[in-house]
Design a protein that fits this description.
The protein is α/β, with parallel strands linked by helices and 325 residues long. The protein contains ten helices and 14 strands. The strands form two sheets. Strands 1, 4, 5, 6, 9, 10, 11, 12, 13 and 14 form a ten-stranded mixed sheet that branches. Strands 3-2-7-8 form a four-stranded mixed sheet. A hairpin with a 2-residue loop joins strand 13 and strand 14.
Length: 325
């Protein structure tokens, strides 16, 4: 039995790596892709995970497979193809460590995952199924992702969704919104940024936006990550906002994935059904997840920056909250 199985992109993040003596920009190769990042922190925290994805039959694909195996993510669901190269993403950081992306994906191997390549047994034998929308930007991976989500619902799995909006990857944003809404119909746990919440609902108010999603889709837990401002949550009629931790931020790549992976870790460890958590239990989980997200910003790259349980516990014990400064 797997704790978490995810479907989605597995790619290379090229992060800024300084400059040569002549002033030419350097980029560092890091493993990336949001679903893999979520599984990476879960595996580092001792959970059993597996990824459903597709990579190219090239050096980058081999590197990603090796990375997943090394961190303990099961790779039996990752398909290797000769039809396209492994997807590349170049990460650009501003002075505060916030990032933007340039993608080399026309097509990328992750886009070519087909429905008949989905290992149903992986989904059948997991506790939580996780997905995003990068794998839904184009076919055939769009249909494969939808098939996997429906399969997870059929098997009554707890379903986690991170829309992870990347506008450059969509032909048009109306289509992106439609597919996010399709995903929400199957979602139990939603992790969304403030910008993504507004994109989906048209509401700037976190309370109104999250309320709209809960009323329309019945989402059990909505987590709105707000970067340095922490996390807003909606759980039934209960809402709240918890501060994050003050750390030396270098690179925010993967911070939201670390947050979500840590949250799923806590949910897996809970002896209660997600519907039966009380406010104190939920806020303790979010506090832990905020610390994980903060720590992930202290190193370059996503997977290499994922913290352990002891790292997170130490952060909670020693670091100051942003609003205490």
């Amino acid at each position: 039995m797997f704790d978490v199985v995810a479907i989605g992109e597995l790619l290379i993040d090229f992060a800024p790596g300084g400059v040569t003596p002549e002033g030419t920009a350097l980029f560092e190769r890091n493993p990336g892709g949001a679903p893999g990042n979520v599984l990476a922190i879960l595996s580092k925290m001792g959970k059993k995970t597996a990824l459903i994805s597709k990579v190219g039959n090239d050096q980058f694909g081999s590197f990603l497979l090796s990375t997943m195996k090394d961190i303990g993510v099961d790779t039996q669901g990752i398909v290797i193809t000769d039809q396209a190269n492994t997807t590349l993403a170049f990460v650009h950081l501003d002075s505060s460590g916030d990032r933007s992306f340039s993608f080399y994906r026309k097509p990328g191997a992750d886009m070519l995952l087909c429905e008949d390549e989905i290992d149903r047994e992986l989904i059948k034998n997991c506790r939580i199924f996780h997905f995003g929308t990068v794998s839904m930007t184009k076919g055939p991976s769009r249909d494969a992702t939808l098939y996997a989500i429906k399969t997870a619902k059929k098997y009554k799995k707890l379903i986690s969704f991170d829309p992870n909006l990347r506008p450059p990857l969509w032909d048009n944003l109306k289509e992106a919104k439609t597919l996010m809404e399709t995903g929400l119909a199957y979602t139990d746990i939603l992790k969304v940024s403030g910008e993504e919440l507004e994109f989906i609902t048209g509401e700037k108010s976190l309370g109104k936006g999250s309320g709209y999603i809960q009323d329309k889709y019945g989402t059990k837990l909505i987590l709105v990550t707000l970067g340095p401002e922490g996390c807003f949550y909606r759980y039934g009629n209960t809402t709240g906002k918890l501060a994050t931790y003050d750390v030396n931020t270098i690179d925010t790549t993967g911070a939201g994935d670390a947050f979500l992976g840590a949250m799923l870790y806590k949910i897996l460890n809970s002896e209660k059904s997600i519907e039966l958590l009380d406010k104190d239990e939920l806020e303790s989980m979010i506090k832990f997840s905020n610390a994980a997200g903060s720590l992930a910003t202290m190193k370059k790259g996503a997977i290499p920056a994922m913290p352990s349980v002891s790292d997170v516990e130490n952060c909670i014990a020693t670091a100051k909250l942003k609003n205490e400064l």
